[in-house]
Amino acid sequence: MTTSATPSHLAAPPHAAPQLATDSEELSEDDLAPQSTPHHLFNVNNSNNNEEEEKEKKKKERKEQKKKEKKEKKEQEQREKEEKEKEEKEKKEKEEKEKKEKEEKEKKEKEEKEKNKPKELFVINPAGSLYYNWLFIITIPVMYNWTMIIARACFEELQHNFLIYWVILDYSSDLIYLADMFFRTRTGYLEQGLIVKDEKLLRDRYVSSFQFRLDFISMLPTDILYLYYGLDYPEIRLNKLLRIGRLMEFFTRTETKTNYPNIFRIGNLIMYILIIIHWNACFYFSFSKHIGFGADDWVYPALDDPDEPAFGKPMRKYSFSLYWSTLTLTTIGETPPPALDSEFLFHVVDFLVGVLVFATIVGNIATMISNMNAAQAQFQSRIDNIKQYMQVRKVSKDLELRVIKWFDYLWNNGKAQDEREVLRYLPDKLKAEIAIQVHMDTLRKVRIFADCEAGLLIELVLKLRPQVFSPGDYICKKGDIGREMYIIKDGKLAVVADDGVTQFVVLGSGSYFGEISILNIKGSKAGNRRTANIRSIGYSDLFCLSKDDLMESLLEYPDAKGMLEEKGRQILMKDGLIDLDPANIMPEAKELEEKVNRLYSTMELMQSKLKKILGKYKVTDKTLRCRITDLERQTGEEVEDEDEEEEEVKKEEKEAEGEKKEEEKGDEEEKGEEEKGEEAKDEEGKGEEAQEEEKKDETTEEDKK
User: Fold this and answer.
1) What is the DSSP secondary structure assignment for residue 174, as one 8-state letter?
2) Closest of 541, 546, 534 to residue 438, by C-alpha
3) Average pLDDT in the 385-413 region?
4) Does residue 493 sit in helix, strand or coil?
5) What does the alpha-carbon distance between residue 550 and residue 640 come to, in Å, rounded to a whole number?
6) What is the CA 283 to chain-centroid distance, rounded?
7) Cα dist. 619→622, 652, 659 in Å?
8) What is the pLDDT, as a whole number, of residue 197?
9) Helical packing angle, 261-291 and 129-154, nearest 10°
10) Gap between the Cα atoms of 699 and 226, Å rounded
11) What is the C-alpha separation between 571 and 576, in angstroms, rounded?
12) Where is 411: in which H helix or E strand?
């Protein structure tokens, strides 16, 4: 008990508080009850310390809770972010999967469509080279059948000796015929300017045509009849001759494609004649066989004649028959006379065919020769007319010889044709393309046209005119008015002095001159005059571009016109041939006339507008007076006499009549003038209409009064 009775002023330090608290906790309540007041104070201090510690613990706990809550929030946010990212990833994966599935579906659909779609046919253009080459291929079996079937049928040795070759050739030609039928089903045709590529339409068109029937008949298997008649009857294949249409089509297309149509026509005609003679020879031999060889002098001689054994050979049989057919069809007639009636009939038919053949030969050859010489005959007629004119006008022999030599040069060098006359039947686009290929390179050599628009160059190319000059001809002389520019295509030109002998410069192909004089550049010291003498040394070919053609083309290209004029000024400035003083630059007469006409037209427009304004002023003045009088009457004021108003109206009418008379006099004077622009006339009409409107307004006002 002595330890507990400590003085009251002694207080436990703060660091001893926990130990004291534990000691007090170990004591029971009974032991503490009888304690004195100092003990009680000590316990109070302990309790305060405990409260502070609890508060601190609570604060720590709160802080820890807050930290935990923050951590939990962060963890939740991270979880939410992760979940969102996962969801986004899943969405993206789903979208990608859906896209892939859609793409796969689209691919499958496309593949199915492509499978279901009818494949594009390989359609042959009837105007193309493939079609023409196929015509050449199909022509070979047609010619084979037309020449060999009749020969094998009439000459038996020909059929027996080469039987294997004939079988191969026959069935190979049949295969080509069959391929031709398939080829026809793939041959397009034009409908509304486009090639039809529909398989059904192409097939239906071919099947419904007459040519299909002929092709079908030509493909009938008549060779089966060989089993019944034997191999000695090749005439059972005569149905193969129905493909002659292909042969004719090939010849017509070749005639249009070749550059030598007249020579081809002559060769084609000779081929037809030879085929006719060949067929007639075969008919003659078979007819002689029917009557009997050697039965008379008209038929083919006997085959077993010991004096002439050569007539039994196959080559002699064909050559003799061909000779007889040629003599008969050409109506020469140096053959033995017929003896039998059938021979007479055969001979008469042959003569009639021969007359027709001979007439066609003569007529066709005459037309071909005339067509071949048409250009020469036309050119010769020009020379004859000029010769006749020079003889009538008594032109000197030297000049006449120069003219004839000039014509000879044109004809010998193929320059007698007029390009515009030759190309006039072509459309403008084809003309332009031909002109571009022929003349564009020469036009681009001119430096002022080097950077011009393509459209302007095309128009200028179409307007280039070729000209040919003889030796010693002057293309231009110093002081002449420049109306053309020239581009040298071939030949040599010399810039000579006034004596025509001394040469300053020689111009060759690709050179040009006269381009400045046709531009009318203001300030040019030479104006539009030529500044040099240019003479042709030999025969020279030039392209000429006139000033009118250039200006006509430049109307639609104003920018190009300004550019050309600027280039021309630069060239003149380099050569020192331009005057830059504006006082010395005189405007052209046409420009002055245009300016005067414009001023005149603007003055007339102003006059008409003033007249309209005055007319409206008078109308408004009259209406105001009428209103004022009405108001005065309503108010009871004194109204001016109507006589005064009538006098004013009469004065106005007199003034209007005087103006009319003056206008009529002016119209009569204007009619007497010759030079008056169309714009001025149109504006005068407008002024008259305005006056008529004023008159109508005045009359309506008078009627109202």
Assistant:
1) H
2) 541
3) 88
4) strand
5) 74
6) 57
7) 5, 12, 17
8) 85
9) 20
10) 112
11) 9
12) helix 397-412
- Candidates 430, 431, 456, 424; CA nearest to 443 is 456
The confidence score (pLDDT) of residue 299 equals 92
HEC per residue, 202-267: HHHHHHCCHHHHHHHHHCCCHHHHHHHHCCCCHHHHHHHHHHHHHHHHHHHHHHHHCCCHHHHHHH
Q: What is the largest CA-CA distance in the chain?
A: 193
Rounded Cα–Cα distance for residues 452 and 550 (Å): 13
**Rg of the chain over all Cα atoms, to the nearest angstrom:** 58
Q: Region 267-291: what's the mean pLDDT?
A: 92
Pairing of strands 493-496, 533-536: antiparallel
114: enclosing H helix or E strand: helix 37-116
Our CA dihedral for 450, 455, 459, 460, rounded to 10 degrees, sits at -10
Q: For a pLDDT cut of 90, what percent of the chain falls above it?
A: 22
Q: Cα–chain-centroid distance for residue 31?
A: 128
Residue 37 tokens read as 């007041």
Task: Quick: pLDDT tens for 427-451.
Answer: 878 888 888 887 777 777 777 777 7
Q: Name residues whose C-beta falls within 8 Å of residue 33's C-beta, 6 or more positions apart in sequence.
A: none
User: b/e per residue, 55-76, with b = 16+ CB within 10 A?
Assistant: eeeeeeeeeeeeeeeeeeeeee
Tens digit of each residue's pLDDT (9 = 90 or more) over 61-98: 887 888 888 888 888 888 888 888 888 888 888 888 88
Highest mean pLDDT among 11-25, 193-207, 416-430, 680-694: 193-207
Task: Report the 10 Å Cβ neighbour count for 346.
Answer: 20
Q: Quick one: DSSP state of residue 556?
A: T
Residue 369 has pLDDT above 90, yes or no: no
Whether 184 contacts 215, CB under 8 Å: yes
Report CA-CA distances (Å) from 174 to 12, 147, 312, 401, 415: 138, 16, 33, 67, 51
Cβ pair 475, 486 in contact under 8 A: yes
Identify the H or E element spanning 490. Answer: strand 484-490
- Concatenate the DSSP letters of all residues of 560-585 into one string: HHHHHHHHHHHHHHHHT-B---TTT-
- Tokens linked to 168: 């191969």
What's the token pair of residue 46? 């302990």
**What does the pLDDT read at residue 28?**
38
**Percent of the chain with pLDDT strictly greater than 70:** 79
Range name among 37-46, 81-90, 296-305 with the lowest pLDDT average: 37-46
**Whether residue 37 has pLDDT greater than 50:** no
Phi first, then psi, for residue 36 (nearest 5°) are -85, 175
- Residue type at 520? N
Residue 414 has pLDDT above 80, yes or no: no
In Å, how far are 12, 70, 130, 470 from 261, measured between CA atoms?
144, 105, 21, 34
- In 3-state terms, what secondary structure has residue 496? strand
- Total residue length of the chain: 705
How confident is the prediction for the chain on average, in pLDDT? 79
**What is the average per-residue pLDDT within 362-373?**
78
Backbone angles phi, psi at 494, to 5 degrees: -120, 135
| Secondary-structure breakdown of the chain: helix, strand, coil percentages, each rounded to the nearest 5 | 70, 5, 25
